[in-house]
Amino acid sequence: MATAPGARATARETTGVPQPAADSTPLILSGANVVLPSGTVTAGRVVVDGTRIAATAPDDARVLDVRGHWLVPGFVDLHNHGGGGASFTSGTVEEVLAGIETHRRHGTTTLVASTVTGDMDFLTHRAGLLSELAEQGDIAGIHFEGPFISPCRKGAHSEELLRDPDPAEVRKLIDAARGHARMVTLATELPGGTDSVRLLAEHGVIAAIGHTDATYEQTVEAIEAGATVATHLFNAMPALGHRAPGPIAALLQDERVTVELINDGVHLHPAALELAFRHKGARRVAFITDAMDAAGFGDGRYMLGPLEVEVAGGVARLVEGGSIAGSTLTLDRAFKRAVTVDRLPVEDAVAALSANPARLLGLSDRVGSLEPGRDADLVLLDGAFDVRGVMRRGLWVVAPELG
């Protein structure tokens, strides 16, 4: 909870870095710019009691002085294929956990694991493995990107494994995920696309329009059927045209749709990002990473599903054909770019990185804000918007070093 400048905390001052894993004493993070849904509180405070954010602190709470810093909610990534050298599509459980930990160190405290196109038997088996991690609380669910996408806009997906979105096969993936399917990306203009959108909506799974060659009219039809997300808007879809506006215009116009944006300086021109925010408003944009194995790991050769990827200078491209193959982005970099390059208000960046994706996932009662009762998931940023601390459920993932 944030308090106004001058408010006194009835707690003793301490020095050094608190370690809640070893000490369950409530903690007050004091003096930061605290970003809340209602706005930013300067010289505010956040009280952590166990795994939750509390409204008040007991007299014996410790105090950590974080003046000159920003406190924002932990980031929520809707669309992430891996990191730390590990693929969420093909890695072992240990490798997947290492990839998750890589993103946590960069502020992503809630993550949906995304798969890439594969054959149905492989994807259903993979869904079983990832659903176990969801049941353990390591991930917030599963996003299936492919195989139900357009060969015209396949990007870094294997064309021979693509298929039309047959509702029966979509249902097979939902069932394999054991209640943890969160989103499916579809080219909704393909045969079965609209019926699959309806099926997903009926089962409480986000239908996302992406890797699509749809017309404006076909996109409107899919939205009316229940599609609510645009998968990495502008990428892997027809460009905006003045006679054939295509999916971009429809996705920007409809207030029911939230658009994903990859804010890495590679996937989008700053003017495209500004256009999206101008038309959607800050409540209908979600920054994602679309990260692959190289995120937080480095340049080199990697596999994205069955396709080989070359990462050079932090940019991932298919070895064959040169298409962009996901990103090496982490959400702390997306945040910093948003406020320092794109000049977005900090509050808008927080909405795009935390509150909006949490709401889409139906998790806003637990994550996405620093309000009392939510999980103690937070990111401590310095004045240059670099990560200095990350807390997840009351435990430091990255412990701050503050004199």
UniProtKB/TrEMBL annotation:
<dbReference type="GO" id="GO:0008448">
    <property type="term" value="F:N-acetylglucosamine-6-phosphate deacetylase activity"/>
</dbReference>
<dbReference type="InterPro" id="IPR003764">
    <property type="entry name" value="GlcNAc_6-P_deAcase"/>
</dbReference>
<feature type="domain" description="Amidohydrolase-related">
    <location>
        <begin position="71"/>
        <end position="396"/>
    </location>
</feature>
<keyword id="KW-0479">Metal-binding</keyword>
<dbReference type="InterPro" id="IPR032466">
    <property type="entry name" value="Metal_Hydrolase"/>
</dbReference>
<dbReference type="InterPro" id="IPR006680">
    <property type="entry name" value="Amidohydro-rel"/>
</dbReference>
<comment type="similarity">
    <text>Belongs to the metallo-dependent hydrolases superfamily. NagA family.</text>
</comment>
<feature type="region of interest" description="Disordered">
    <location>
        <begin position="1"/>
        <end position="24"/>
    </location>
</feature>
<dbReference type="Pfam" id="PF01979">
    <property type="entry name" value="Amidohydro_1"/>
</dbReference>
<keyword id="KW-0119">Carbohydrate metabolism</keyword>
<dbReference type="InterPro" id="IPR011059">
    <property type="entry name" value="Metal-dep_hydrolase_composite"/>
</dbReference>
<keyword id="KW-0378">Hydrolase</keyword>
<protein>
    <submittedName>
        <fullName>N-acetylglucosamine-6-phosphate deacetylase</fullName>
        <ecNumber>3.5.1.25</ecNumber>
    </submittedName>
</protein>
